[in-house]
Each structure stands twice: as structure tokens, then as C-alpha cells.
Design brief:
Elements lengths: L1 H4 L1 H31 L4 H18 L1 H10 L2 H24 L5 H29 L3 H33 L1 H19 L10 H17 L5 H17 L1 H13 L4 H23 L1
Length: 277
């Protein structure tokens, strides 16, 4: 099996699944907390929270890309997961102590999203470093890309289902374990050609201007980026609408949200298999 053929890639994949599932659980829990604690304007505040979650990648993408390129991959992966684990532990403590307000939630959402902005491109960078066989690289990329959907499906069901069982404060606090476990997995990954930060810095600096001038030559890539951006613009409200709909229209609890989230992702998977047929 492919995953067992490349043991180091298997570790990367397991770390990605663990951390991204934890991230989805955290988002579901915080979405429910915002709606539950703000009955009048919860939808608007949840929208603000979601915006805070995408701003870091939009504002700091150049800095993030350069940092990922010029630092050792394992160091970036482990650091991102440990920082996120610390942030979630702090957020969970504030929730348990009943000291969290929306302003703090917004700051934590921004900070966690900023760390994720470093983590995701680092995972993409790690794939060709761990799978050097061109024939197997396509399978590796497919595994890495599908992980987000798997983690979203599992995390959405798990998060919404556990809200009633353990409560939002405990659930958010527990998600810090996902990222800590992910960091412990990733710290054991052996990268064959890992380089130190200094070795790649000059190359990235010299290429920056050239890359900025090459957009006209890569117009198709620019069109793809715009297309995917528009898809995400209209797809993101799912996470915003569903908690509001379940609580206000259905007057249901979080376990119903788990079923709704599961149905959405089952539909996505069914559609993907149907297209392949």
C-alpha cells in the first residue's frame, strides 16, 4: 500500500489528519458558542469571526510563503502545531473560567488562522521532499489534498456530536491535544534533503522579483486562482449558515448539527464518486 511504502509521508499524513480534524472541531465549537451566546446578532458576529479566520492568509501571504521556503520543513510543522496547541489550551481555559468575550474570541481566531497560514503550505512543500519518485508523487498529492475533506467530515461530525456530551469549553480545551499529538508525530519525520534557513534565503530573495513579473506568462494559473477564490467565497458560508439554521430555524441542539454536517460531506463524497464513474 502506498502509505506504508513511504513511512515518512505516512507520518506527515497522520499529523495533517490529526491537526486539521482538531481545527474543524474547534471551528464548530466556537461557531455554536457564538450563536448560543448572542441570540440577537449571532449570525453577524459569526460572520466577523469567519472573516478574521481568512484575513491572515490574505494580508501576509508573501511573508508566509517566504518563511515557509526559507525554514526547515520539520521545524515549521512542529512549531505551527505547538503554537496552535498553546493557543487552543489558552482559549479553552478562558471558556472554562467564563472569561471569554467576543473580542478575545476574534483575536484567538485571527491568531490560530495565522498559524494555519504557515502550516498548510508547509505540508504542501513537504510532500515532494518525502516522495521523490515521480510516479508516486501524484498519489501523494491526492492523499494530501483529500485529507482536508476527510478531516472536515470527521471533525464536523465529532465536534458537533461532542458539544452536548462534554460542553463547548471542555471540547475546545481538548482540541489542543490534537495539535500536540500532531507535533509529536511530525517531530519524528526524517526529511532526506532538509536544509537550514540560511541556505535558501538568498535564492528566495532573488526569485521574488522575477516571480512578480511572471504573472502575464502564467495567465492560466492566475485564472485558476481567481476561480478557486470565487468557489471558496461562496462555499465558506456553509460553516456560517448551518449553526444558525440548526439553532434558530430547527430549534435543535448540536447533535442535529452533527447530522447536517455529515449529510453535507456525504453528498460531496457521493458526488465525487459519481463523477469518477
Amino acid at each position: 500500500m502506498f502509505l506504508f511504502k513511504y513511512r515518512e509521508f505516512l507520518k506527515l499524513w497522520l499529523g495533517q489528519v490529526t491537526s486539521q480534524a482538531g481545527n474543524k472541531v474547534y471551528l464548530i465549537a466556537m461557531s455554536w458558542w457564538i450563536i448560543e451566546n448572542n441570540p440577537e446578532n449571532g449570525g453577524f458576529l459569526l460572520g466577523c469571526f469567519m472573516i478574521a479566520g481568512v484575513l491572515p492568509a490574505m494580508l501576509f501571504f508573501k511573508f508566509m510563503g517566504k518563511t515557509v521556503d526559507t525554514n526547515p520543513t520539520r521545524k515549521m510543522l512542529v512549531s505551527c502545531d505547538l503554537i496552535t496547541s498553546t493557543l487552543l489550551a489558552s482559549l479553552g481555559w478562558l471558556l472554562i473560567a467564563n472569561k471569554l468575550n467576543f473580542s478575545y474570541a476574534l483575536l484567538f481566531g485571527f491568531a490560530i488562522a495565522a498559524v494555519e497560514g504557515f502550516f498548510n503550505p508547509t505540508v504542501s512543500k513537504a510532500v515532494p521532499e518525502l516522495v521523490n519518485n515521480e510516479a508516486d508523487l501524484e498519489s501523494a498529492v491526492a492523499y494530501q489534498s483529500s485529507t482536508q475533506y476527510m478531516a472536515s467530515f470527521g471533525g464536523a461530525m465529532l465536534g458537533a456530536g461532542l458539544i452536548n456530551l462534554v460542553g463547548i469549553p471542555n471540547l475546545v480545551a481538548l482540541t489542543c491535544l490534537n495539535f500536540f499529538i500532531s507535533a509529536m508525530i511530525e517531530i519524528t519525520i526524517k526529511f532526506p534533503n532538509e536544509v537550514e534557513a540560511a541556505s535558501g534565503a538568498d535564492a528566495v530573495d532573488s526569485a521574488a522579483g522575477e516571480q512578480a513579473l511572471n504573472w502575464k506568462k502564467h495567465s492560466f494559473l492566475l485564472q485558476m486562482l481567481i476561480g478557486f477564490g470565487l468557489v471558496n467565497l461562496f462555499a465558506t458560508p456553509d460553516l456560517l449558515i448551518m449553526p444558525v439554521y440548526v439553532q434558530r430555524a430547527l430549534h435543535a441542539k448540536a447533535d442535529v448539527l452533527a447530522l447536517v454536517e455529515a449529510a453535507i460531506w456525504m453528498g460531496i463524497l457521493a458526488g465525487a464518486f459519481w463523477l469518477r464513474i
